[in-house]
Every structure is written in structure tokens, then in C-alpha cells.
Amino acid sequence: MPADTPTPAPRGDRGPHAPEDRATEARRRRASGGRALKSRRLRLARLEQLEHFGRPTPRPTGGASRLAWIDAARGLAIVAVVLLHVSIGHYYALPQAADWVVPRWDRINQVVAVIRMPLLFVVSGMLASGKIRRGFAHGNAILSAVTNYYLYLVWLAVYGFLFIASGPVVVPFQPARVQDFFIQIVEPRTPLWFVFGLAAYTLVFTALRRVPPGIVLAGSAAVSIWAGMTWTVESPLWTRILLYVFYFVLGVHAKPLILRHARSWWVLLGSGVLTVAFFQAFGLATLMTPKPLSFGDSVLSLVLQLAASVLGITASAQLCRWRPWRVVGSWVGRRTLGIYVMHVPVIVAWHFAVELGPLAVVETLTATSLWFDLLYPVLLTAFVVVVCVGIETLLGTLRLAHLFRLPSRLRRRLYRR
């Protein structure tokens, strides 16, 4: 090395205030601050998501508005469920203005049966698809399952209180013995079977998420067909969990396909034609038979309800082009859980009020006014839906939201990003 070339000092001999060190330290601090800010924003976002977990789905905005039809389809299905329970739990017991009115409403409920629960489970499967696909470690499948089972137990207790408060008056789904009530902790025998089923489905199909979808769909279809051959419409309600399992799995694994074709007029037309054709081939008498179905009839029933579910989804997607339907349907659809768990107690309370005197005028009107008699199930269904939403809102303001959501401490422990 030339003699006049200075030898650089070792790095450790540089002063602590060297320009390079100060620049490096500044960059390190900026990077650290950026990471801290990002981490803080992420924590806030996670806490906000956690706070809203289990609440009614917020109204979609911007690009998410295209999914309003999913909520509307779910709302349509839940209204059909309420209509059924209004009919069998109250309306059919009233005096009628004409002998043909109840048979007509009974026929309507029987026809709607081909779409009511299958549609509700397909949409439920679509909404649970993300949690199930992400698995236990990276999704909220455990939180969702625990929340649903928690709600099942809470409202089973509410039903039990209702059974006790009714005294000698028999209410729908009332068990004959005390032990028959407690067995429902693992064997649902009330309309709450749907909530129990969601918890079970979420756990089972999250565990099976790595199995090829075709195998899971085929297996669930086989279970549904077998259930149709084993049980009937008069069988215990827990058997419906096996009967409708295929439709939930379809919603989970066929979600991209459904989203792609939901607004197709051709799919709407084709599913409508197939639903009518299969319904004519199957027949209402076979659908509502008190005997188990044959293998062929059980397969036909599965295909019929599949076509009807597609019809319900595509019809909802097309109707959501009309703003009033989109607003009302999605408003109901975002609140289905509260409506589902509360509608039976509300119907029972209304029935008591009619039977015991305060609202006895209803019996007079159904017996004397044909128009009121015809419209009463629809009017009462709308009233029950609104009352359920109002009660849920009121209980939330009274710090009783735990009737509809898992307690915050448990949510925080189970929540996964």
C-alpha cells in the first residue's frame, strides 16, 4: 500500500456519533416504529372483529353489496321457518272462517318444505366456508362451534323455563319427563336442533377439510339419503341434522360455483323447471309420508331439494336487483340467529294471550272474517320476526347480550386471526 494512503480505522474505533451510525440508528427506529404502528393497528382490527363476532352481520357497503342476496336468501328461509311454526303452533288450533283455509295453508307449508331447511343450510355452509377451510389453528372454527353450542344451551334453558312457567298448559316440544329435557344437552328435540347442528357441522367438516371435496360431498349425500330411508317427518328432530348434512357441505365446498352463477337467468330458469318436474314426479304424498322412503324416493328427494335450493338462491339474487327486497331481505337475513332462537317462545306467548283472554278477539276475527283468516299467518309471521329483532335489541341495551353471544373473556381466548 502506498505510504501516503491513510489506513482506515477499525469499525469499533469510530466514535459513537459517526454519521453512518446515526443514519443506521434512525432507519432502525423508523422501521421499529412502523412495525409497532402496524402491530397496534392489527390488534385494534382484531379486537374490533372479535367485538362484532356473533352480532348481526353489518350492512354490506361498497363492493360487498353484491353479497346482499346471501343475507336475503337466509332471511327468506328463516321467514319460512317462522311461518311453519306460526301455523302448527298457533294458527291451526284457532276457529276458522271456512273449512278449506287450514288445508290450503297446510299445503303451502308442505310445498315450502322442499326449500326451507335445505336453503338455510346451503347459505349457512357458504358463510361457514372460510372458517372451515382455514382450519382449527388459523381460523375461527372452534370459536364458531363453541358459540353455537353455547347459544344452544342458553336457549334450551329458556325453553325449560317456558315449560315450567306454562304449568298445566301443554306447549309445543314440551318433554314428558324431566330426564327427557336434560337428554337434550346432547340430543336436540326442539327447533334448536338447527343451532346444535351448526356447531356439530363446523367441528366435523373442519376436521375433514383436507379430505377431497368430492369425497366429502359424496359421503354427506349418502348420509342424507340413508337418513331419508331411516326416519320420517315424525321422527325426533335431532335426525334432521343427518338428513340435511349434504346441503351444508354443498354450501361449504361449492361456494365459488354458487357465487359465480347465482345471478344467471339460465340457472334460475333451469332450477325452476327441475324443481317443478321433480316435485311432480315425487309427489306431496310421498314427501310427507309417515313411513321411511325407499332408496329411489330418498335419492329423488335429495335431488328435488337440491334443485329447490338453487332456485331459492338464484331467485333471491335476482330479486335483490329490486331495492325494497334487497333492503328488507338482507335486514332480516343479518338477524336470523336471534329470530331463530326466540321465535318459538314468542309464538307460545302470543298463543297464550289469545287462548287466555287478552287477545281473544283474534279468535273472533279468524272465525268471522275470511280475509283476516287467510292473511293472519302472514301478518303474525311478520309480527313475530319484528318482535324477535326488537327483543334482541332491547336485551343488548340491558347488558344481556350474552343471551346471543359468547362472553367476551371466552371469545378472546378462542379467537384466531
From TrEMBL:
UniProt keywords, alphabetically: Cell membrane, Membrane, Transmembrane, Transmembrane helix
Ranges of Basic residues composition bias in the record: 27-37
Family annotation (InterPro entries): Acyl_transf_3_dom
GO molecular function: O-acetyltransferase activity
Chain segments carrying region Disordered: 1-37
Basic and acidic residues bias spans: 11-26
Domain Acyltransferase: 68-391
Membrane topology summary: Multi-pass membrane protein
A GO CC term assigned to this protein in UniProt: plasma membrane
Gene Ontology process terms (BP): enterobacterial common antigen biosynthetic process
Domain of life: Bacteria
Cellular localization per UniProt: Cell membrane
Record-stated family: Belongs to the acyltransferase 3 family.
Full protein name: Acyltransferase 3 domain-containing protein
